[in-house]
Amino acid sequence: MGIPREAVRLVGDPPKPRMIAERSGKDWTAQFNPFAAKRVQALTALDLAGYIFKKNSPSCGMERVRVYNSKGVPTRQGRGLFAAAVMEASRRLKEFLRSRLGGYATRRNKPDLDGTSQLSPYLHFGHMGPHTIALAVQDAGAPLQDRAAFLEELIVRRELAVNFVRYNSNYENFDSCEAWADVTLRKHAPDKRRFVYTARDLENAETHDPLWNAAQKQMVLTGWMHGYLRMYWAKKILEWSPSPGVAYDTAVQLNDRYELDGRDPNGYAGIAWAVAGKHDRAWGPERSVYGKIRHMSYESTSRKFNSKAYVERIRPWREIAHRQADSP
Ligand SMILES: Cc1cc2nc3c(=O)[nH]c(=O)nc-3n(C[C@H](O)[C@H](O)[C@H](O)COP(=O)(O)OP(=O)(O)OC[C@H]3O[C@@H](n4cnc5c(N)ncnc54)[C@H](O)[C@@H]3O)c2cc1C
């Protein structure tokens, strides 16, 4: 913004204001938000005990910050953009520690229960760093098995993903495939597919599989899909695409377009795991299309949790979205 910077103010809708320079009228919002995310991450790494925010500031004020309407009249209903991001991530972490960390080890693979932290978008944008979360979880009163299961995901799985994109320049495409997986998928490339869907069919959740369609809709309508279903979702894209290369590309495109936490090492590693054998091993029996890649069937996946309840929970959101799309 330069030093000294021009004075800025918040303008528009108080829950979602824009940051506008007072004299030039320049809109700083799109530049400020990623800056705030990076700054939070840098501060988080310092393991501070707290921050001092500046009262009334359009970036740092915690409450009663002025937001101006189109006529230039202020209301005192705003929150600085930087402070808002830090406070929301912190609220969500506290809520997870209080109500969902206990039982995480058994509930995390049950999409009907929503037992995970849902912190991935905040981690992705840097509103909160992994150190803060890991230390809070370590010190929480939840049973050891739940804390250990969570830290395995946050530290081991997350670091493996960062390592993958750091050392494999093909992380965004099928050339990242493990050698054993490449051999088995090539062998099964000519196998007849029972269902083949285009990227458009998949994007619109128009498949024969109600569980897959619900997961896809959860991602498109809310920007977040449950982790257990992300595995199933990508495996089915492999099964229903004309080739593993097309499947990889489609999964990356949809994931990066619709997940709030998309365009992230975890996403590329997750897709490489599901489609291309990354961080996995060969499985038997050898199957059509999958070869020795680990398989997930509709029957076994939908039996592992209350899939009917999950599909029913998503259904009203789909209906609302359809109604909105149809209305003039
Ligand atoms: C096909 C596929 C696509 C995926 N796409 C993404 C993506 O775009 N962005 C993303 O952040 N994650 C992605 N993941 C990984 C994982 O599913 C999500 O990180 C997790 O579901 C996010 O929900 P949560 O924050 O509630 O997770 P929690 O269970 O609460 O875990 C806490 C944190 O640990 C990390 N974590 C959890 N599971 C994994 C994992 N399997 N691999 C690496 N880190 C993990 C994440 O940072 C997560 O926020 C993908 C996985 C698969 C199989």
Shape: globular
Which CATH first-tier class of the largest domain would you pick? Answer: Mainly Alpha
Enumerate the spans where pLDDT stays under 50 for 5 or more consecutive residues.
none
Number of domains: 3
* Strand order in the largest sheet: 2-1-3-4
Q: Main beta sheet: strand number and arrangement?
A: 4 strands, mixed
Compact overview of the structure:
With 328 residues, the chain is mainly alpha-helical.
Notes on the structure:
The structure is a single chain. The protein is mainly alpha-helical. The protein has three domains: about 10-85, no CATH class; about 85-165, Serine Threonine Protein Phosphatase 5, Tetratricopeptide repeat (Alpha Horseshoe); about 170-325, DNA Cyclobutane Dipyrimidine Photolyase, subunit A, domain 3, CATH 1.10.579. Helix content is about 55%, strand content about 5%. The chain contains 14 helices and four strands. The protein has helices at about 30-45, 80-100, 105, 120-125, 130-140, 145-165, 180-185, 200-205, 210-220, 225-240, 245-260, 265-275, 300-305, 305-325; strands at about 10, 20, 65-70, 75-80. Strands 2-1-3-4 form a four-stranded mixed β-sheet, with no helix packed on it. Strand 1 (about 10) and strand 2 (about 20) form a beta hairpin. Helix 9 (about 210-220) packs across helix 14. The protein starts with 7 loop residues before the first strand and ends with a helix. The mean pLDDT is about 95. Bound molecules: flavin-adenine dinucleotide. Flavin-adenine dinucleotide binds near residues 158, 161 and 259.
